[in-house]
Amino acid sequence: MVAGRGCVYDAAPMISRQITIDCQRLLCPMPVIRVQDRIAELDAGDQVTAVCTDPGVLQDIPAWCRINGHAVLSAEESDGEYRVTVRVGG
């Protein structure tokens, strides 16, 4: 706890969870559903990385995030593996 200018607040940084889920060999819409189900269990600020083999996730997961108030932190491809990292919105 830190006191300053008449206020007391907790200066400890907020610790968010970073979860990785395996969506390899799953086709649309299953990677989005797996991300949706996992996010439902998490708190705002937590992060989920979906590891996929379906290139459609590079459009599908960001579209789902826009509709549902989450933020895509990264979306990348390497050697046929697609990783999309999402920060859970509030």
Structural class: alpha+beta
Mean pLDDT across all amino acids:
90
| CATH architecture assignment name | 2-Layer Sandwich
Rg, Cα atoms, Å: 16 Å
Low-confidence stretches: none
Count of individual domains: 1
Name the CATH superfamily classification.
TusA-like domain
| Amino- and carboxy-terminal Cα gap | 25 Å
| Major sheet characteristics | 4 strands, mixed
Strand order of the largest sheet: 3-4-6-5
Helical run tally = 2
Any idea of the CATH class? Alpha Beta
Could you state the order of secondary-structure elements as H and E?
EEEHEHEE
Task: Please indicate the percent range of residues in DSSP E strands (runs of 2 or more).
Answer: 35-45%
Globally, the shape reads globular
Please tally the β strands and state the result.
Answer: 6
Helix content: 10-25%
CATH-assigned fold name: Translation Initiation Factor IF3
Short description:
The chain has 90 residues and is α+β, with helices and mostly antiparallel strands. It is built from 2 helices and 6 strands; from the N terminus they run βββαβαββ. It has a single domain, classed as TusA-like domain (Translation Initiation Factor IF3), CATH 3.30.110.
Write up what this structure looks like.
This protein has 90 residues and is an alpha+beta fold. It has one domain (16-87): TusA-like domain (Translation Initiation Factor IF3), CATH 3.30.110.40. The protein has helices at 30-39, 57-68, and strands at 2-4, 7-9, 18-23, 47-52, 71-78, 81-87. A four-stranded mixed β-sheet has the order 3-4-6-5, covered by helices on one side. Strands 1-2 form a two-stranded antiparallel ribbon. The chain is globular, with a radius of gyration of 16 Å.
